[in-house]
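Protein entry
_____________
===
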Amino acid sequence: MKKLLHGASAGVLVLATATSGTFAAHAQETEASDEARMNTVTVTTRRSEENLQDVPISITAIGEEAILDQGIADFDDIAAYTPGLSFKDFVTGFNGVATMRGLAQANVQDSTGNVGTFVDGLYLQRGYMVNFALADMERIEVVKGPQSALYGQNTFSGAINVVTQRPGDELEVDASVTLGDYDRQEVKLAVGGPIIDGILGGRVFYGNSAYGGSIENTFPGISGDFDHFGGYDREAYSGILVFTPTDYLTFEGFYQHYERDEEQRAYYTINCANAEWSCNADGGTWFAGTLPTSPDSLLSGANPDRPSGLFSVPQPNLVTETDLYRFSADWDINEDWSFSYLFGKAEASALEQFWFNQNSYNPIGGLGVYTNQHEGGTLDFQSHELRLAFDGGGPLTGEFGYYTSEADDEFAFGLNLQPADGEIDSLTDNPVSLDTMFLPFNYRSTTFETEALFARAEYEFLDGQLVAGLEGRYTITDVAVRDNLARQAAVNGGLDPDVQAPDLTDQWKEFTPRATLNYFVTPENMIYASVGRGVKSGGFNGYVTGTVPLDEDERSYGSESNWTYEIGAKNEFLDGRLFTNAALFYTDWTNQQISVVPRNYTVVIGADDRAVPGIFGAVGDSTAWGLEFETSWVPNENWSFFANFAYTDTEYGEGANNPAYGEVSGNTIPGASPVTASLGFQYDRPLTQELDGFFALDANYDSDQYVTPDNTIEIEGRTLFNLRAGVTYGDVKAFVFVKNLTDEEYIDGVFTIPSLFQITPSFGERRTAGITLSYSY
């Protein structure tokens, strides 16, 4: 801590600001106006309970009722109802990437993302650690814009925090069963309440979910689990104890375990180096235009034996396992001061073994071996946070604290080799084993050590009508990377690995402030302005990329940062029946981490520049601006409506150059739709004195989006409709649902490997239907 205190500067105080989305809470309220206002959502975005509409931060909150009704199961579902948020997990789900406000990251294998994900404030560093489907969730909070001041941990463009359920003062039972087509089965059960009245409470949860996938695998003779793409088995269980020995002291202990066993999404791979494909750009070696949903239109006809549609040989599933531990202590020292401590620990592992070559049936020239991709990792993370808060009931409130964390991340990436016998076999269950690889690309052990001081303060003027705030965080991040491949090569050559390939180390020191000013025109109508800085720490390229040695200054790259400027308004009208929230933002992104050409590279593969090996450098500049709008309206006890809209315009800055795509300045940053929208309604009415019925319909829209930095490949936009209809009887609810009502076929992500002339689109789920029965006591 001494190095941090020595480097910290004074004046690190803050407030937060923005707009708020109340989709789940307000769109479904059907009671009288007084009750509708009482039901406003409480959030803990700033680590204390606050009314969502009074928090000057841009938030979309999805409550537990909406999680059940909308079938919120993963990032895709969250993004569908959150303006300005998109998510891509490509074919296997190992490298899931969330993008907020168009600020997409270039390196999908990066151990840290642009959007931070948390469970009750515990940071989940890798995408494979996240499984919302079977968490005992109270709500999901999506916080937009840089959150580095309060959250830290690379919340460069936003944060997603899952808030889990706590035990109440009475016995509570929550249970649900879902059955549907494509072998869908899901069971959830939670029981909680007092163990020792007023002193000790607890809650336990168990969930299990299975699904067969909605898109047929047309591989000839296929049978068993892989006859459809996208199936999965998921399991989770958790428990929490809350101990309150006095009115002023509370302890919490929480544990959660979850695991996933998931098939690949439906996909096809264009291989422009293969005569089976008829590619239309760069002399037939690449594709340009809108990717079709069927690969058949891109085939050359050279292989008449090739099956139609989407197909793959049976392949091993993505397998992940995650354990979360959390302990917290809260002490109300007196009426003005409170102290809190939070300890978190996360342990996770994941492994995929996947063959991208889509034509695994009678390819031209035969096939002797399969080269399947091995990508695996393990991560061990733990953190401590101390926080002292002041609220004396006057105009000044504030808090300050200290944070420290350490993460050990191992990542292995390469190619396995096995006979082409019509099935890809799982060659190992060790995520970071090199024993089965004939061509390893990357095997690194990385340690992250982080320390931070943070503070926040608000001051109310004009009896609370005008509120000004400052917040800030000073962070020191030390990173050490061991390039295990380079060290092994040194050993194989009879050399000292500590001399030839010593650990690469670097340190990044960053201050991330935010200032806000919000004015309550009325108690229900607020306007605000804010400016804040977000930072994502740097990383490492290693000693070599492919066969190209890297100069010393290329072995690591620096932090990237952004300044985001935002104005907005949050409003309640008609006695709390109508909510409208809007935000206008501009982001200046500097030192953007983008792909660059190694200094020592010389053309060795003909004249084709798509085979250039890329590394990463913090050398780019980009901008983004956009508009977000959210509204919900409950005109009477029968009807409720909601609508969300976001427009984002992103642009690479001058001098942006990509090794595979050339000069890209002025182009749109790929990976997110410029326009996203969702809207829907619900109609409720009594059917008998004790039985109520409801019918709901909503639609989600994503516009066309670019796939590559040169903006020559894009995927078509899509509109998905979802329907629910059911009844409630006291504590029991039963409803039928249909997702993707019109059975739209659409591409939801694309992964490109220019050096191999490959483009791999993956598909979203087709129409699915089922029935859910739930009980809450």
The chain has seven helices and 46 strands.
